[in-house]
Amino acid sequence: MEETKITNITMSVEGMHCPSCAANIERSIEHLSGVVKASVNFASSEVAVQYDPQRVDMDQIKKAVAKPGYKVRESVWAKSKTFWQERKFFIQMVVTGLLVIASWAFMHSNPLASKITAMVAVIAGGYSVFIEAVRVLLIPDLGVSVLISIASIAAVAVGAYTEAAMVILIMLVGETLEHVAVRKTHQAIAKLMQLAPSNALVKRGDKEEEVAVEDVHIDDIVIIKPGGRIPVDGIIAQGEGLVNQSMLTGEAIPASKAVGDKVYAGTLNEGNAFEIKVSQVGEGTKLAHIKRLVLQAEMEKSPIQRLADRFARYFIPVVFLIALVIFLMSDPSERIFKVITVFVAACPCAMVLAAPTAVVAGLGNAAKKGILIKGGQYLETFGHLHTLLMDKTGTLTEGKIKVTDIKTLNNHSEKDIIYHAAIAEKRSEHPIAKAVLNYANEKKMDIPDPVMFEVHKGMGVTAKMSDEVAVGNRALMKSRNISVSPETEKMMEALEKTGKTVLMVSIKGVLAGLVAVADTLRSDAEAIIKNIRKAGVKRIALLTGDNARTAEYIAKQAGIDEWYSDLMPEDKIAKLKEIKQSGVKTGMIGDGINDAPSLAAADVGIAMGTIGSEVAIEAADVSLMRDDLSMVPVAIKLSRRVWNTIIQNFVFSIAYNIGMITLIGFAVHDHSGITLGAVLHQLSCLLVVASSLRLLRG
């Protein structure tokens, strides 16, 4: 049986003016057979679709978007819009406002002119709402546009012409303000999109040419002037600079860059001029990759967002039932005005906006600080984190491992031990291997390539040149039947008690010596662990492949009272799954490459210092763009703020609608209440968005 291949696409959509529009598009697309999931982001005017291309094609999806009255822009990155498309609601609002003022002016002097002007205002301002209502009914579905259309038509039918025009005007004013406010929640992300300059100064032969960034090619030489923003990714080929990477890492202090160092598009040169050799352009740059991740994150809905969407879906049918009850229980002279006001005032938009505006604002704030969170689901989980499991090397420690001690055995010299250990470690990517090679380079040793090389996960490496060499821990030596004397074991224990990791080096099947390496605990590790606990994490544990004595030493120095040592990668996953079985939300923090399996198994995988590693960004659910453990409690606190804001918004929107409908049932007696209903409708949305905007601060 052929496996179904699911395709993911993201499209930019024109014509959305409220959260109800986003819901209309989602439902229209999801009606198609072959669509797995559709997710619409009102803030960025984008829709993400998962679909089976064997059952549905792009043309059908575009038609589904067009069915309720919207249009797919052919390019997600298209920036050109017509004057009318960009300012549609503002123009409608101004025209409708002028017509309403004219209707008031004629009210006493010329009642007929007043009614005609009000009717023109209803048509001019409300035609798009009426058209949308018809299209929504054809999906078939119900939406806010249906309620407003029924209410406006009913108001005209009972002779409340000016009130009907006022309803349309207030809706337009409210939608314009709402649109501006929602865009503000997207502001931090929008700024990220605009970081890369559009031109670059390229060195071609003896000439310097300013060209469009699209015309820059890999291996070109680009000149970066003082105060200039870097247009592409590259490696410094000449000169030195001081590069402000805060837009990517959140780190305010500029980084010194010299020949051979990497620089990234969108960062700012605050030092001298330098030249870079281009390594990535356009969509291949780190900035473009981060943009894609952030935009994808916006589209991923958290569980509470999905709950709010389901709740809103049933809201309007419930409003119809409530309106029917009010109609049957009210005085005959008042009932029509009460029902019209209920239709005008009822607002599921506040519920629909409750979560996405908070999530978008939270993701934007996090991105500004150099924290990439891959969607509302992980933002929500991060905010509920109960247990945090931590890797040792590069997480609790600086990741700058150095050789500290060499102990010789069986008549081997220090030089002999380091020479053979360096041959074995030459092909390894492990930080400890790099420490051994750096030490050999410092001693000016010429290290040949091994003829054979093999990694033994969680134990060490073996290699062969003229002699067979094994470098690793006790488990590796045991697996190769290499004996370790009690005296050697005591020597190792003494080193391990001081937090050092001991490598055993065997040559030709005999233990030749010990190489001790050490990594420095981060100076602020203990304070950060306390802050993580203050942020709400109840349990913190260290998981390491290192020995028990080193694990205990590092854990106690950092203020962690639970540690697990001698763990192979599969052991870390097993321990993580064991902890998760208790039902608590569990996070894992590591380097994103060596710990990738554990990060994937955790409820939230957190990778540190990932600006230079695309693999690490892909592996983690949360990526900390700079190598700074203090970002962890910041991210947790921000996630909790987002969660609390969502709950506040959601509870408020429900309570507001209940209170509003109750007020209408008792307080509305004639057509004067219709205008009040329109004001109340828009006020709920604006208050929810204003609440979410608080997340952009701090």
Write the layout of secondary structure elements.
Blueprint: E1 7-14, H1 19-30, E2 35-41, E3 46-51, H2 58-66, E4 71-73, H3 83-106, H4 111-138, H5 144-157, H6 161-185, H7 187-193, E5 199-204, E6 207-212, E7 221-224, E8 233-238, E9 241-244, H8 246-249, E10 255-257, E11 262-263, E12 268-269, E13 274-280, H9 286-299, H10 303-329, H11 335-345, H12 349-354, H13 356-368, E14 371-373, H14 376-383, E15 387-390, H15 392-396, E16 402-408, H16 414-425, H17 431-442, E17 452-456, E18 460-464, E19 468-472, H18 474-479, H19 486-496, E20 501-507, E21 510-518, H20 525-534, E22 539-543, H21 548-558, E23 563-564, H22 569-580, E24 586-590, H23 596-601, E25 604-608, H24 614-619, E26 622-624, H25 631-667, H26 672-693
Parallel strand pairs: 15-22, 15-24, 22-23, 24-25, 25-26
Antiparallel strand pairs: 1-3, 1-4, 2-3, 5-6, 5-7, 7-13, 8-11, 8-13, 9-10, 9-12, 14-26, 16-21, 17-18, 18-19, 19-20, 20-21
Mind explaining what this structure looks like?
The structure is a single chain. The chain has 698 residues and is α+β, with helices and mostly antiparallel strands. A seven-stranded mixed β-sheet has the order 14-26-25-24-15-22-23, with helices on both faces. Strands 6-5-7-13-8-11 form a six-stranded antiparallel β-sheet, with no helix packed on it. The longest helix has 37 residues, at 631-667. The chain is elongated.
